Amino acid sequence: MKTYFTKIFLLVVVFTPLISCDNELDIKNTNRLATEEYYQSQEEAQAAVDAIYNGLIIDGNYQRMTPIMGDARGDEARSRSPWIFLAQTANFTVPSTDGALEIAYLGYYTVINRANQALEAIDQIEDIQPELRDRLLGQAYFLRALAYFNATNVYDNVPLVLEVQTGAETFFPSNQETTQAEIYAQIESDLNEAITKLPVSYDNVSGPDMGQAARATVGAANSLMGKLKLYQGDYAGALPYFQTVVNSGVYDLAPNYGDLFSQDPAIENANPGRIFWAEFTQSANVDFNWGGDPTVNWRQFSAIAPTYSGADFYDFIPTQFLVDELKEERTINDEIDPRYPATILSYLPDEGLTQSYGQPYFLDQNENYIAKYTLANTGGDPFVCGINYHVIRFADVLLMYAECLANTGNIPSAATHVQRVRDRANLPDREAEFAAYNLNEFMDQLAHERVTELAIEGLRWYDIKRWGWLDDPAKLNELQANDPDFNSYAPNRKYQPFPQTELDRNPNLVGNSAND
């Protein structure tokens, strides 16, 4: 069952999510309760945490902009959008003056500020079950860690805001001495708190959150901790966190790859490989969930569907590189890789692919379109798309675990986990071949496996960065061949620039390399 968080949000969001403000914010809003008047019970404590989750489904986070900034800057998709922000994000030329840069920036701080408010409020509430208190605190720490992980990987040295902002002087935090290493250290601290407080699942907890599957778990926290270590090149440090998740027995690979991107709640809920996700619904309510304070009329749809769809906005197309990667191997039954039609919409009658959006193929038969996270294989209204967005899923953890094993000297075990992912796609058993590879050969193969399994999931760009390909002339040449947008890449463009609007409002804020 879908979990609906918005019904209690109206009471809990009592301060602006923006970090740049002025004295007008001190004006009392008579239509809202002040924080000191509201947080009195465990129901209100849970409402504070539920409000953080709401921040995940707005435009700046997983509704649209966070996936876009991963997909656009990788070599799997190209922008053909008339919206210049999308095109310039894809080719690394977006100027700091483009107002759309603020969408994700404010989205991340919406989550961060709501998490700060929840952490402070929960500590002050006496009427709450101890176990529930721990679970709520664990979720707030996890969600703050996730928001900072995304924020620093998009914008680099973002301000660390760890307390509720209560006056004009606190609304102008400085990042002038902040480094990404310090941000990563804070994320690690938050995740350590989350790991000690979160349950394995909510199936057997006692409290109002019982059975609410969309909440953060210890598996999600361990997975994100492993990823945090991996992004810093600490393979040995990441290894035990991934190992804990893989060996937990809690997660497995769903038999049908295409089911991972269904909006059918029954199919979504049956997926044993989902670890943490942003939850969307097929609600047709009148108020779109682009951002701001939610209302009872909010719909909770995923805007990736119309944005990526070839039948709608058609803002992105798959690169030929991605098409070729997904066609590289056929299944043991000599069929196309089942991940191809789940990822790319093409007219391939020899493969039995002759439908688009639930009807006979009506698009240009000579073009390829993005299928993943759209309704390309089923049809339906994209503006009520309820496909949940995978923030962390088991196949990604298996491949990250394999990467850590290989880079700590255990390529044979790494090959086992790679083949496990391939088995779900019914690909030939090449485990013994991979086990005999040297590290460079294995990493080349792993890069291919990650593309075919995880394409158009906002991850490839960050793989490219952390593997050092942007600083390797030979690899950069490959990226330029895969995607001409890399022809305009410059070394100072590893991050999106800070929004000029934020720099103008906050005198203590400095930009990153992309602002130079």
Automatic annotation (TrEMBL):
<feature type="region of interest" description="Disordered">
    <location>
        <begin position="481"/>
        <end position="516"/>
    </location>
</feature>
<keyword id="KW-0472">Membrane</keyword>
<feature type="domain" description="RagB/SusD">
    <location>
        <begin position="371"/>
        <end position="512"/>
    </location>
</feature>
<dbReference type="Pfam" id="PF14322">
    <property type="entry name" value="SusD-like_3"/>
</dbReference>
<keyword id="KW-0998">Cell outer membrane</keyword>
<protein>
    <submittedName>
        <fullName>RagB/SusD family nutrient uptake outer membrane protein</fullName>
    </submittedName>
</protein>
<keyword id="KW-0732">Signal</keyword>
<dbReference type="InterPro" id="IPR033985">
    <property type="entry name" value="SusD-like_N"/>
</dbReference>
<dbReference type="Pfam" id="PF07980">
    <property type="entry name" value="SusD_RagB"/>
</dbReference>
<dbReference type="InterPro" id="IPR011990">
    <property type="entry name" value="TPR-like_helical_dom_sf"/>
</dbReference>
<feature type="domain" description="SusD-like N-terminal">
    <location>
        <begin position="43"/>
        <end position="205"/>
    </location>
</feature>
<dbReference type="InterPro" id="IPR012944">
    <property type="entry name" value="SusD_RagB_dom"/>
</dbReference>
<comment type="similarity">
    <text>Belongs to the SusD family.</text>
</comment>
